[in-house]
């Protein structure tokens, strides 16, 4: 998962373990970054991305799932 500001400035890049602790940390980071109007992009990899997508939807974040990010 990566979070961009102004499409070219990466302000966060990392992997997310699908557990309550990591989602809580992610939410805290997102609250802090919200002031910067971040663009959230992640690799849509089937079952691996569904928990992240649900989290983002539940918290009202705007995001962009991408297919095959690792191929680029």
What does this protein look like?
The chain has a four-stranded mixed sheet with strand order 2-1-3-4, with helices on one face. Helices cover 36% and strands 25% of the residues. The longest helix has 14 residues. With 72 residues, it is an alpha+beta fold.
Describe how the helices and strands are arranged.
Layout: E1 2-5, E2 9-13, H1 20-33, E3 39-43, H2 47-58, E4 63-66
Question: Can you tag this structure with a few keywords?
Answer:
36% helix; alpha+beta
Query: First CA to last CA: what distance?
Result: 14 Å
Number of strand segments: 4
Please describe the biggest sheet, giving its number of strands, its sense, and whether it closes into a barrel: 4 strands, mixed
Strand order of the largest sheet: 2-1-3-4
Average pLDDT level: 81
Spatial extent as radius of gyration: 12 Å
| Shape, per Cα inertia axes | globular
As for the number of domains, it is: 1
Helix content: 25-40%
Report the portion of residues in β strands. Answer: 25-35%
How many DSSP helices? 2
Structural class: alpha+beta
The H-and-E topology, N to C, reads as: EEHEHE
Low-confidence stretches: none
What is shown here, in short?
36% of the residues lie in helices and 25% in strands. The protein is an alpha+beta fold and 72 residues long. The chain has one domain (2-71).
